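Reopening: structure tokens for the zinc ion complex, inputs below.
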Amino acid sequence: MPPAEKPRFRAKRKVKGKPLYYNERTQRRWNRWRKRKRDGLLASLGGRCAHCGSLDELEFDCIEPQGHLHHVSGSGMRLLFYEKQAELENLQILCKTCHRRKTALDVLNQPECPY
Ligand SMILES: [Zn+2]
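Re-run output (same inputs, fresh job):
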């Protein structure tokens, strides 16, 4: 009888709330990549709220709403999505307050309920 197959990979330390393949080094690299992408995008768009000029709590916003799909994807996917929107000149920066106001207006302007 063949010996039972041993697991080839063993997590050194199980991190609570993270999958087993979670790895601090790749996570750090990933965070760096994300931050660089985000900072680059912010800088290319002026780095301040397009509406009131605020520098606090900046968020990306699609000028023409692109649906809610990208809001539920992972942060990396979302950044790539925003990068694409920036190429199409459909991306702006809004502060949290202005973003919330615009989102509310977008919903009101929807001809049909999106849900
Ligand atoms: Zn604002």
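The chain has a mean pLDDT of 83. Strands lie at 58-62, 91-95. Marking as resolved unless the reporter disagrees.
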